[in-house]
Amino acid sequence: MTALKAAQETARDRDRAAGHSAAHAGDRGPLVGQPIPRIEDAALLTGAGRYGDDLPVKPGTLHAAILRSPHAHAELLGIDPSAALALPGVAAVVTGAEARRFASPFLVGVKAPMEHWCLAVDRVRYLGEPVAVVLAEDRYLAEDALDRVAVRYRPLAAVMSVEQAADPASELLHPTVGSNIVNTRSFTYGEPGRVLAAAEHRVALTVHYPRNSCTPMECFVVLADYDPAEDSYEVLSNFSGPFAVHPVMARALNVPGSRLRLRSPPHSGGSFGNKQAVFPYIVLMGVCARAAGRPVKWVEDRLEHLMAATSATGRRVDLEAAVAPDGKVLALSLRQTEDCGAYLRAPEPASLYRNHGNLTGAYCIPHLAVVNRIAVTNKTPSGLNRGFGGGQLYFGLERLMDRIARTLGLDPLDVIRRNLVPASAMPYTTASGGLLDSGDFPATLEEAVERGGLAALRARRDAARAEGRLYGIGYAAVVEPSISNMGYITTVLTAEERRKAGPKNGAQASATVAVDPTGGVSVSVASVPQGQGHRTVLAQVVADVLGLRFEDIRVVTDFDTAKDAWSIAAGNYSSRFAGAVAGTAHLAATKLRDRLARLAAGQLNAPAGEIRFAGGKVFAAGNPENALSFSRLAAAGHWAPGTLPDGQEAALRETVFWTPEPLKAPTDGDHINSSACYGFIFDFCGVEVDRVTGQVRIDRYVTMHDAGRILNPLLMEGQILGGFSQAVGVALYEEYAYGADGRFLSGTFADYLVPTAVEVPVPVILHRESPSPVTPLGAKGAGEGNNMSTPVCIANAVADALGVDTVSLPLTPSRVAAVIHGAEPPRPAGAAVQAPRVSALPATTPDGRGMKGEGSRAVPVPPEQVWAILLDPKELAALLPGCEALQLAGPNTYRAEVVVGIGPVRGRYTAEVALSDLDPPNALTLTGSGSSALGTGRGTGRVRLERTAEGTLVHYAYTAEVGGKVAAVGGRMLDSAARLLIGQFFDRLIGRAGGPATPAGRPRGQPGLLDRLLRLLGIRR
Amino acid sequence: MPIMNADTRHPVTITLNGRSRTGHAHPRMLLSDFLRHELGAHGTRVGCEHGVCGACTVRIDGVAQRTCLTLAVQADGRRVDTVEGLAPEGRMTALQEAFRRHHALQCGFCTAGILMSLSDYLERVPRPTEGELRDMLSGHLCRCTGYAGIVRAVMDVTGASTEVADV
Questions:
Q1: Does a structural domain hold residue A40?
Q2: ipTM more than 0.90?
Q3: A218, B26: Cβ pair inside 8 Å?
Q4: Do A447 and A348 reside in the same domain of the chain?
Q5: Residue A168 banded pLDDT, cuts 50, 70, 90
Q6: How far apart are CA A993 and CA A980, in angstroms?
């Protein structure tokens, strides 16, 4: 059966089930477990959704645009906003001075003297870091004014890798810390050293996990207002939680939590964890509203989001295993170095500790050694991202299992089988303290092998290989943690530090179920849904408990910290909805039902224990004919509280807080059960690699999940398909790439490649259901698992196809082709240099310094005349493309105002231009550097004038670096832009010299294809 | 197109989902901003503002186009159809119903643009193959669904058979 056919069968089952949506609980079994389509969809399909940017703003609201650092690392010397303030419509420019006045630095999760402010105060540490905010009457005017804020920087060396960070000679991001490794902790569980020393085989591996992000389609939105009379902030934002960050925000704004009212819009355009990272901007806009004395609205744009919102951590993992000859892993050593970016932003270093209880994955490995190091680099701070920390861990662990098999000559699947936690050991306590709560991993694996058709896939691989094709099979087995222990992050502290700070543990979920005077039932939760369908599932859960119809339940998920029941674990993260939130709603509904049962007991003359709720009626089990209507019974508490039986309270509203019992604080031995539940996933896939292009095609993908009880199979499938799609992106396309000098290279969706409908196959999805004993409904999280299992499963398959030991993510065609063919040789040097010739160095070269090029052009006048033109400021001004003003600043030194556009970005640069090494009329050096809100540029060109029969041949050679937004969004176009600008320079020079002369290789009068293309792109007019 | 003063707001009249609507826009104002913030038609979403993601797609004189790459003044005098106009009587179209049935949306942010592209495309290509459909959909980014539900929904509505090599 094809994947698609399987999917269609599922769809048909679902269509049949869809008819159940109007059913009463009890008529055809419970609603929970049925694939019911979503309540949410009616609004979203008709354009009636209300997302953050759709909501009304108060009159007088100012619109914010953020000036961001064009440097990866620099001292901030001064900001002059005067020219910006002079523009029409600009109300204020907010800088680090206002941040210091009205705010405090954010709390940091480790004991290290690092300061992170909502606006840079004396130094910028990543490209895109907020430096100033322009507040204007509309967004267009605010963005205009960014160009006019003058900022002086002193650039510093950038630290762009964990290896660099670990080098004591690297430039310090936070000099007060004294190192770019800001925290190191070692853990020993069992006797890993002894077992490794005695092992028959030791298998070691080092992997790097790249920085990437799930990039929700909606960017960040903040509406902020400050009330001076109450000294309180009111904010509406698409922040997704965790609300453990709410105290961090309140502290940064110097107010208690009760004076930071935070509300969420009714709809969210996705988060996948990323909307956690809006929180520094909530503080920033609070400061702006307070400084300006008016409400403020900020909507992040996509360039800002990709450049500076958030990222999964990059991670280097050095693994070593002690292995028995049969492939059994006896001990594991993990040395993890986490790239958290420029600041340890809350809740980091959570990425590194979220999986601490399940560091040994789905395996029985009794001896474990761990060294965790946290590095700061000149990159965007990391944060929540679907699969949080799991993709990083399992990329190492499952590559290691594959490597063990290859090293020992075993079948990789047999190595997995030999190490899985056996069913007889469940619930299983891992070496580091995780409690794997339920499941039969070996049986689940065998079922996947059978139902997923592994034997057929192996035959397919053999057939492909017999034809000489590159075909491979990969496997991955992982446990998927859900419902994070709020105490796991404190594992980064020593036991001594934890004792001082006080215990942290648990994962409070809350839910409120209420009946109104008409007998209508409403449910509210602090889950801040991001598109999954929480309202639908909660209606299923509560309707079942109260014996009502699905559509009788109204679920409200707009969240308000001032009015709703919540605690720090509230929010949408760590796959906590199905297990914790839906379970808590079940408990609240049950509590309300039990109270109603006691009221009904008197009226029906039956014991409360025999009262039943079904079909909208309330009746005694033994006498269903004598029934009360639910709405009448429920509404009585509003209309006639005086008639309640003695000692009974009205059943109007129940709020329940629930925390999973097994979530304790870390022990003194650093054992931590980091999550309440652990699902199990086993994946395998077949991929084919194009031998010529290196393109990876996923031929078949099978993913088996045991996530406990499934509440709504339709939505569960949607979560798996979505996570899988993002994981395909991680495996094959996505990376937040930087140049070695800190330039950001992935600033648009044309550079940061998200999979489209053409690239994502439909996987075969299989399920088992082993209910969790921990959660009220037996459900576990399911939405993150493929972000953990799929990238490494695909990587293992590619390694198998290529027969290589090392593969790195993302497996782009060029990277895979380099494995097949070796690195591409450098472009051969051309003999003739008549036409301008530019070659861009790849960003990953050791110097990482942008572009260099050389060329020559014929000018039809003698060298003396060319020399005179170049040395005349007026002539030079006319030659420089986009030069609007040129003033003499010193001998042969000029200050120029230049407007240059690269692709979609057009910027005004203030440039310093200098002529040096003058050798009239033979040679000179032209040096320029410029900066603007859009980025920086500097370059040096050596110009040599050669006398010829026709006049002069002007030779030039230059190097140039470009940084900031221009590099991020226009990187692909820099080559052609440089060529174009140089071409313009010479066209003008030739014109000045009395041309016309045409550069070689292009017929006169006819614009070249490149020129026409560039005109279309807006680079050339 | 007439020469316009960059500093002046110009009246722009469009036929929005069958009704004449007038607002004012500076010449540089994007059609996406004009629809959303000047006319209050929020159903059209903005996902990237550089023409890649497709969330802001509407039909202009029947043709699916990106409103983030279109100026409001360019739409003056033209017919603009948005997601709000797909189900004017409050009854969803067969395609919208199929999206719901097949869970073809989660957060819904990309959905309006996809529906508008499809409404144009399916008029021209009533029974696309799965390959053709996926090719067309590749002009839209969806981060939630993995596109599977979207493809199923369209195939369900068109009744076309799917062609996938047996694995």
A1: no
A2: yes
A3: no
A4: yes
A5: very high
A6: 20
